[in-house]
Amino acid sequence: MTFNDFSFKEKLQKAILDAGFKEPSPIQRDAIPVVLSGKDIVGQAHTGTGKTAAFGLPIINMMEGNKEVEAVVIVPTRELAMQVSDELFRFGKHLSINTATVYGGQSYSRQLKHIANAGIVVATPGRFLDLLRDKKIVINPSYVVLDEADEMLDMGFLDDIKEIFTYMPSTRQTLLFSATMPNAIKALAKTILVEPEFITITKSEITNSKITQTYYVVDEHERDDALIRLYDFKNPDKSIIFCRTKKEVDRLSTFLVSQGFSAKGLHGDMEQRQREEAINSFKKGKLEVLIATDVAARGLDVNDVSHVFNYHLPFDSESYVHRIGRTGRAGKDGMAVSIVTPHEFKMLQKIQKDTGGKLEAKVIPNINSVKEKKTDSLKSKIIEQKIYDSGINIVESLKEEYDLTTIAHKLASILTNDTYVKGNNYIGKSQIDIERLIERLKNDKGDRSNRNRRGGYSNSRGRNNNRRRNSSGGDNRKSSRSRRG
Q1: pLDDT of amino acid 205
Q2: Which end of the chain, N or C, is surrounded by fewer C-beta atoms within 10 Å?
Q3: Which ranges of 93-237 would DSSP assign to H, the alpha helix?
Q4: Which residues lie below 8 Å from residue 160, measured CB to CB, with a gap of 6+?
Q5: CA 23 to CA 269: how far, in whole Å?
Q6: Quick one: how far is CA 47 from the chain centroid?
Q7: What's the confidence (pLDDT) of residue 364?
Q8: 454: burial class by Cβ within 10 Å (0-12, 13-18, 19+)?
């Protein structure tokens, strides 16, 4: 299936081609025909599945372009508002459909001026409700979209959303999108939608098949060393590192800058100007690494992110899917890398079960492996390098003192400075260690199952069982390291 099958307007089709879209994603494939038919919908899909295009393309196709607000999209955060607004503007540019972004922290007059010239308003609930209450805007949109509804629920916006809909016309088409469907969202859907069609992306479609997911097992104190080693080995073009806390973001961004990386943090305590500056620098390629919390990265849409790193695993599977959805976008391949400790293994297994994704265990490369890869890359670079007059002149001048072989050795020695690898030779668990850890978890599950069926072990039996597991599940690093070589 292609986007041509939807029979969009010619100018909209041109914008789709300009954006590099080829085949519709599952949510786009299922939702677009329903939206075009005029029905209300409830779509259960995660960030990164292409929801903006799923509602934006059909709405723009149906808009009359009569220079007034015809569509409203309500989102939880200002970052997501900016991202959605940018994407909708790209879709509507050939149809002369403008977008206005409305969120707190900017002047009312400026936003009102943009709304006066917009066909689509993308807004966060608080500021949008202020404008409606104060009668600063009086609009009659034909289409209203709630995006990331569960996020708005978590952030305490539910009452604001309900009040916003008292200002919306009854004759409207309403679209609600949410990654999860808690009871409060189901109840909201019943009050604001009319006979909606439900569209759910199945578990197998939750994670993008173009994203390769791997994990590396380390001890807690090895996280920083593991991250640097993985960067040395993978050499990502543009990457995002996810942390659980704002404090961790600040610490890690300072550490990476000290290690020579072009990196900045992104979290909610930063001033809006700083956050916009970090996002824009990242988009334009001035930053190679962005370190972010889950909330700060909501809606971050950069198509050329090659790698996502989970410095810590998130607390739930939903956040994991949101995180890795930052890579593998616009049909490109992506890499999702998680650094985990043995204590996080149960969370890792839960993520695999919930998402249906395949996370492959890997061993952090040793120094020789990284050097070998860097040297191969350097050789390729030398082979592909064009010869310029400036280079010829340097060699000719050096030939007065040295033979060509010595000159070549000296030049190669300068270049091989880039192949230097920091840190311990071995970092993290070996393949044998990881296999033992997986086996131990399986045995623990079996023990719990047996205890449930038998009504529980006696205390002495439990202590003996634990002792046996501890003695057989030790970290036999020396033997596994020597075999791994």
Answers
A1: 52
A2: C
A3: 108-116, 125-133, 149-154, 158-164, 183-192, 203-206, 223-234
A4: 125, 126, 129
A5: 39
A6: 8
A7: 93
A8: exposed
For the chain, the maximum distance between any two Cα atoms, rounded to a whole number of angstroms, is 89
CA gap 149, 154 in Å, rounded: 9
Strand order in the sheet with 120-123: 99-102, 120-123, 71-74, 143-146, 173-178, 41-44, 197-200
Domain limits, the chain: 3-201, 207-362, 368-419, 431-484
- Put residue 346 in one of left, alpha, beta given phi > 0 → left and psi -120 to 50 → alpha: alpha
Q: Does domain 207-362 have CATH number 3.40.190.10?
A: no
Residue 471's pLDDT is 37
Same fold, 3-201 and 207-362: yes
Instruction: Copy the structure tokens of residue 87.
Output: 């994407």
Structure tokens at 333: 């391949």
Q: Considering the entire predicted model, what is its pTM?
A: 0.57
The span from the CA of 418 to the CA of 153, in Å, is: 49
CA distance 31 to 33: 6
The DSSP result for 252-292, as a single string, is HHHHHHHTT--EEEE-TTS-HHHHHHHHHHHHTTS-SEEEE
Side chain identity at residue 242, one-letter code: F
| Average pLDDT of span 358-386 | 89
Tell me if 114 sits within 8 A of 83, measured CB to CB: no
pLDDT winner (highest mean) among 62-71, 161-170, 198-207, 471-480: 161-170
pLDDT digits 0-9 by tens, 215-264: 999 999 999 999 999 999 998 989 999 998 899 999 999 999 999 899 99
pLDDT band at 346 (very low <50, low <70, confident <90, very high): confident
Tell me the residue ranges of DSSP E strands in 208-251.
211-217, 239-242
Q: How far apart are CA 344 and CA 359, in angstroms?
A: 14
- pLDDT at position 468 is 37
Quote the pLDDT of residue 330. 67
DSSP-assigned letter for residue 245: S
Q: CATH classification of 3-201 is 3.40.640.10, yes or no?
A: no
For residue 176, pLDDT over 60 is answered with yes
Q: In terms of DSSP bridges, do strands 120-123 and 173-178 run parallel, antiparallel, or are they unpaired?
A: unpaired
